[in-house]
């Protein structure tokens, strides 16, 4: 092993053992959060009242044979299958049919929620107003997905949980299950249940399951506000949940919503769960049942059972409490404590750091100005390494554009390992260079002061994230106190082992988090996990400086480059193994009184003429205002265009029913219909500011909105009425209402078109019509 260590080093054996210990701890920390199948995956089927992975896999395959977006015939077949399975269990499911609108006023549609109730024990005098537990997952999928991970696996696991629970003694609380419709359209099913179903007033708690991938651990990533008892219940119900309160602090800053959002905003307590690994499956053709990780599927199924058994016997009227700080840790489970403890804990750790500083200064002089310089150095290194890592990845994208399709960072962990190892070498090399002017003690306290600033800031502003800085700094500081108080020699093995023991907690805590951030944010935000990693290096600085006194840095440099080279080799064919299918759009444009126009469109940057032989060599790439107008993001994208054959595809119809002045506003009612019964109809206002609008007498918006656009999913058979108000003095010369019917399955009028195989192309058809509002009002 001399190629790893410098010649003449007396501590090479200790350094080797320490290095192996670090690597083993990282491997253990990553392994500890991954789901694992039992030795006999189907052993549970021997017990009638147990979760059956085999049965769940069979049922999942049944509901994901076809693509089934909301409103499609295939979606109806999934609904019928689920209804039949619920009845076979011995339950009495209902279909809640209602017209729903999204809170943001950007989506609407006819939804068919599957609603069923598992009765609990009758109400007792002690709990006169007993609440029900709500289980939720959505059974629709995006148009180009089979909906296995998102969200079929959750639907089937809830179905399996109901089967098990139906065979067992009743829980204290009723369990209401909603398989919601049109979640992908805009949370419509959840909105419809919350607004219109009589059972909504009985809901005391929600458990929602939705997924962004098909692998990895089930994460509890979002609790409701006042979550102390919910977190305590999660820790009690599930032995080793994977969750931490920093996830929610980050999630709140992202523009993401799930069905859970609808209920959280109404003050319903609850927990939100998801799988997030294998992003290549999310909303793509690779979201298939055969690609679901069985271990993840079983973990979620068993978790649902444990959670329902726990909260199904809790008093759901007594859930509100103070927020908690929480995080999972191997062997311990979910550590949690009130968020109000964050600031006192920060004060205690600050005192310990100052004590450590004082003890160290008694042993070796510590210069205050040099310590301040070490603070600035650490901040500079954090920013520089985060920035340079991101720039390096962006450069790689320019050199190898195929990596733009590498949307799944799970295939690229060798890149991450290489980049982090290279960052470590750069970090240590820079600090070794600066050791000419700064002592190790000054450098370590410079990093500790940055950690203290972050600890105090998060404790005050984002207490959910405070654990990330509190506990690692506490254990590292204790190890520093032991070294300085005992005056342990720097050139001894004990020095290295004490530093390692103090750093072990931080290593176990951070390793999964760094990987989680990489998975959640992707390589296009590589700087974030790198910054988190460099923060970790700061409190590991004394250990790193001690180790690399005995290690040959060039060996690790070659290793980091080798890891990235292997990553390049391993992912070179990713875009070939999991290609993003090109999109082909057939468009019929109604231009009355002019003749209709028919176009082929393709949004890809590069046109595959061999696959899309509808496009000739004369096809041009241009904006398409005749299709998308001038008011939506699609209107700013260049499409490849080619003249297409004429068909009988009927465009959506719009008729003005009334026009009147109401106070200072002009109120217009338009009837909208889809003759071809499109899966979705997109509506866009152009040249006019809408002050207020409702659809089917459901409020959509009530604040002035320019370029307002929304969608109608699964339009009712006889169409819908749109009522909108504008300023009575508004100029309408350029006012238009653009309607686009969207089809993902060919209507009868398009059966004659020659299309590429479905396996190679994502096809859709659009029929566009434009209502010239002033011309229509003049008639």
Automatic annotation (TrEMBL):
Residue ranges constituting the Peptidase M28 domain according to the UniProt record: 113-307
SUPFAM superfamilies: Zn-dependent exopeptidases
InterPro entries per the UniProt record, alphabetical: M28_fam, Peptidase_M28
Membrane-spanning segments: 341-360, 372-393, 413-433, 445-462, 468-485, 497-520, 526-548, 555-578
Transmembrane helix listed as a keyword: yes
Keyword terms of this UniProt record: Membrane, Transmembrane, Transmembrane helix
Xref: PANTHER family: METALLOPEPTIDASE M28 FAMILY MEMBER, PEPTIDASE M28 DOMAIN-CONTAINING PROTEIN
Name of the protein: M28 family peptidase
Source species of the chain: Undibacterium danionis
